[in-house]
Amino acid sequence: MIQRRKEDHINISLEKDVEVEDDYWSMLKFVHRALPEVDMEEISLETEIFGCELSAPLMISAITGGYGGAEEFNRRLSSTAEEYGIGFGVGSQRAALEDEGLRSTYEVIRESHPPLVVANLGAPQLIDQKGKHVFDIEDGKMAMDMIGADHLAIHLNYLQEVVQPEGDLRAKGVLEAMAGFCDELPVIAKETGAGIDADTASSLSEVGVKAIDVGGMGGTSFSAVEYYREGTDKKLANMLWDWGIPTPASIIECRRATDVPLIATGGIRNGLDIAKAIALGADIAGIAGGVLPAANISLEDTCKYMEGVLKELKSVMFLLGCKKVEDLRDRRLMIMGELKDWVI
Ligand SMILES: Cc1cc2nc3c(=O)[nH]c(=O)nc-3n(C[C@H](O)[C@H](O)[C@H](O)COP(=O)(O)O)c2cc1C
């Protein structure tokens, strides 16, 4: 069942339009600097997040694992992450914890060595869902060991759970369960496309998460992905297609609420989006849906895609006179359209 679901998610994301309609990143505009006073060759993309040195402020966010075809995806994605010195997160490891035969689809990433490797489990599975296996701290350690991870992402995906026919809909007690994990393991709390608000960010940082991946709305919609799966209530999925907090607004909410490092995933599709995310207060950005088509073709295409994104980021930094990633933090951004209503 889980294998089938993971395969459906990849195929649907590749074949159908599963993006949210509005592009919230385009509602932000940098104020151009006519005199950049920086040489392109001295611009550095290097940065650091919770002690990990990255060659650029970026990670490939959790996408897959847990069915045959996922092995090659993960090989290409992690090799690309190593090549460009960026972070890499695998998709939910639930399948491999429940079926040892599927471990190789995740373990494959041990062939390469990205500077930041993030394991992944779902928050709904940390509590009792009517007799299903409840993941405990030992499972969390096993997931991390499987891929040699530095951190464990616990994903919050209630939009997906409420839309999918087989969804886990008990949510009471999840924060307490996450607190238990945080006592023992370096946890990143991660949304999956609906964003995190200020109150939730405060609660998560109080229980000791090491970072928050805001996983905001504006890119892949999990309601849309589920819409195309067999057996889904299409009316419900359509109604919730663009449910959530736009990623830029979520960064602002979370940054106001907590000092923990922030990862900006959700609709990041080019280097300009990354620069905007950092200017708003994120430490690094994350890309999932955007890299998928290239990863479906070859390692070479995946590297070419990443090279393009990083060149775009450097070009934007040049136009803004930024020698270092941190310089982006005080560059002026104009907020337009609907996004303005979200952030006031
Ligand atoms: C095919 C696919 C599968 C995904 N599976 C997972 C997952 O297993 N665990 C997780 O935390 N996030 C998962 N995500 C969510 C992404 O990590 C990310 O938060 C979300 O897609 C928004 O980013 P994007 O707009 O760049 O796609 C998945 C995304 C895609 C496209």
What does this structure look like?
The chain has 344 residues and is an alpha/beta fold. The protein has a single domain, classed as TIM Barrel, CATH 3.20.20.70. Helices cover 41% and strands 14% of the residues. The strands form three sheets. Strands 4-5-6-7-8-9-10-11 form an eight-stranded parallel barrel, surrounded by six helices. Helix 8 packs across helix 11 and helix 12 crosses helix 14. The mean pLDDT is 97.
Q: Ligands in the structure?
A: flavin mononucleotide
Report the total helices. 15
Tell me the domain tally.
1
How many extended strands?
Answer: 12
**Helix content range:** 40-55%
How large, in whole angstroms, is the Cα Rg? 19 Å
Average pLDDT, all residues = 97
Strand order of the largest sheet: 4-5-6-7-8-9-10-11
